[in-house]
UniProtKB/TrEMBL annotation:
GO molecular function: protein serine/threonine kinase activity
Keyword set includes Phosphoprotein: no
Keywords: Kinase, Serine/threonine-protein kinase, Transferase
Protein's UniProt name: Serine/threonine protein kinase
Taxonomic superkingdom: Bacteria
InterPro entries on file: Kinase-like_dom_sf, Meiotic_Drive_Suppr_Kinase
Lipid metabolism listed as a keyword: no
Length: 218
């Protein structure tokens, strides 16, 4: 029965979603722009290279579609192959050039938790640490793990985007986020339950990117 549902979703994707979808990646360091989604498909989220959709009839599976001329599909398929099954990661159920069917991860990104003032418990950080250690044992290199790529659900942490886990160059994004969590968020922001406007979060995100670029060129 599960395979039948999956086959049906693949057929729907090929017949409805992909032909009627308009998705563009205008600037590689900002999320893609989705200007058209065929009904009744729903947009779940966007990343720098791809967007994620689901069909109401199968809410536990998502379809991730890469924007035209954007890299990463081949690498992401390989990453999911190496990861196999782990509670903190999604699973790839089907892959075709430029798009994938994945197991859906429920929750809210840490980025959105900050915006809504929702407390982020330490267990989430511990879960991500354990998940990244697991990935390293699978000969992967956790890369670009930040507040928009981590989700929280019922107090547990999940890694949403693994597309860059084949990049071997050093990446301090997760370690920097942990420092900010323990040094700034936990002692100051956590007790206050402050809601952070998106424009402030975006300023922090862009400032951090400039800082990392400066450090890497030093």
């Amino acid at each position: 029965m599960e395979q039948t549902h999956l086959d049906w979703l693949i057929e729907l994707s090929e017949r409805e979603l992909l032909p009627g979808l308009q998705i563009d990646s205008i600037e590689p360091h900002n999320p893609v722009v989705v200007s058209k989604v065929p009904s009744p498909w729903q947009l779940l989220g966007t990343g720098n290279y791809a967007a994620v959709f689901y069909h109401p009839s199968q809410p536990d599976r998502v379809v991730k579609v890469y924007a035209p001329n954007r890299p990463g599909w081949t690498e992401e398929v390989e990453v999911y192959h190496r990861l196999g099954s782990h509670p903190a990661f999604s699973e790839c159920l089907y892959a075709e050039e430029g798009w994938l069917v994945l197991k859906r991860l429920y929750g809210m990104t840490l980025y959105d938790c900050m915006h809504q003032g929702i407390p982020i418990p330490k267990q989430v950080i511990k879960d991500i640490d354990a998940a990244l250690d697991y990935a390293r044992k699978r000969k992967l290199h956790p890369h670009d793990v930040h507040g928009r790529n981590i989700m929280m659900w019922e107090g547990r942490g999940f890694v949403v985007d693994v597309s860059d886990f084949l990049h071997e160059e050093a990446c301090s994004a997760w370690q920097d986020l942990k420092k900010a969590y323990y040094w700034l968020y936990l002692p100051i922001l956590y007790p206050l339950r402050l809601r952070m406007p998106y424009f402030i979060l975006n300023i922090v995100r862009k400032s951090y990117r400039l800082y990392r670029r400066f450090v890497s060129n030093w």
